[in-house]
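Justification of computing resources. Each target in the renewal requires a structure prediction run like the one illustrated here; the chain below, 460 residues long, is used simply to show the kind of job we budget for.
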Amino acid sequence: MLNIREIREELGISQAQFSEMINMRQYRLSSLELGKEKPLPDEIERISKAFDEIRNGLVAVRKKKRISKEKFSSSIVADNPRRGYVRTPNNEAYLQSLRILELEFNKKRENCPIAISFFAGCGGLCYGITAAGFKIVASNELEEDYKAIYRQNFPDVKFLANDIKEITDEEIDDILKYYPEIDLFAGGPPCQGFSLAGKRDISDKRNTLFSYYLKIANRVKPKVILMENVRLLTSMKNPDGNFVKDDILNTFAEIGYNSRFFIVNAADYGVAQNRERVIFIGIRKDLNLQPVIADTICGDVNGLFAKQPYFTFGDAVSDLEFLEAGEKSKSDKYHKAVAHPEHVIRWLYNVPEGKSAHDNEDPSLRPPSGYNTTYKRQVWNEPGATVQTTFGMISGSNNVHPIATRSLTIREAMRLQSFPDSFKIEGKDGVVRTTIGNAVPPLLAYRIALFIKSHYIDHQ
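Resulting structure tokens:
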């Protein structure tokens, strides 16, 4: 894997600066550099992207400067007229799409196609699959905090061994005894052990998690295999220097599946967020069908094939109460804003939508480190930026609200991820942010699973 410390020092960046650039707590970065912990897929993506942008001169590393310790006698927010917003014209349409998703999820069905899920997280992928008409009979997740959220929403799903490497043939056979024909096999195996060309941790056992995933699929022999991951996977290489995507496609072929991968953007499927992922689809060869993916529904409304407009940040959240830093909703405990330091609020208060505090003309209002996506406001009338696990950090990448001067609330992040408000969450805020940031948007999962059901399952 990437030798983060070695590359960072070669580029002349302090650990404090780099942690801010990649939207990561410094203690977490330190732990990764010392090898005490392994990076998550989205962390690999952010680290690799930052290194590439710095090398290519796309961002300028700023020299460290002292932060003013001036005592402020008043708040810049309190000293100015209170800001606010009104509901966007498409807010109701977006909320209606989430209500439909919720209604489909809660339907009682009989004789539905059967699905198994792995690496389930809090259940974003499973929510969409269930709403599309599948019955999930078994699942797997390593982290107990994530499982607690999953169980709140899927109380009847049987959990397999936490670690996929420890799932036994007996466990799988016990499922097949009751459900001999599995229609959909779904999950997103982590890929932390792989990296872009360069340093790699060959001994990292997580390099082969997709192999364990497809080994179980080979025993189950489902009609369709769905595998989701970060887009960066398409550029990752294995210890032999071959592309991981080719290893995956070759393994699909070896176990009897026609397969392809597709790069998708959640915004194209009605989610109010730009979020690119790679989706592998494998179709059992005896079905004599080739892998294709659902058509997009959003895009150029003036084109030959009319599509609906993209849903925007405002469409997702404009019915929620307007909050500034440190304020909380009177009715929604998850719509609560983090309290930020006054000097940071002053850096950002007059920053326009789509701009960063690093763009301020006044040098005293520029942060001491970072680059042009940190301390940056989102844009109200465009799809939201990718929701990350650290969306509560105002210093992070595209984490600043378009109008208020604060980071995103949990409820706003869930809306941008297309979770209905009825989705149950529990645990500490940090756990909730991590699992929501890592989740597959349920609405994206729903549209893909609905297509799989109609095209490959019902077709049979």
